[in-house]
Structure prediction request, 97 residues.
Amino acid sequence: MYASDLRRYPTMITSRDQGVFFELGDGCLLDWARVEGLAPVLVFWNAVATEKDWFNYANTFRNGSQENMIAWDKHSDAYASADDAEKARLTRLMLGE
Prediction:
């Protein structure tokens, strides 16, 4: 996916509150990219992963030390400071279990 593809995303996000719709739910960026026939990827410090391999890399979002993630947010911080039981719960949540 290129910047020109992102400019074609049909929903204008103009506030932080609207940002959640860009990330998940009906019409989110990932769903839109799939419909458009684009190949979404995740970019880590050490790899670029196609969608089928997103969960096969170590130390990414809610996975190990998370050191291979380029961007951190409050969810990354919550995982980093959690005990082992909470880390396991957060990982299951991410995986939709």
Q: What stands out?
A: Strands lie at 41-43, 48-50. The two ends are 28 Å apart (CA to CA).
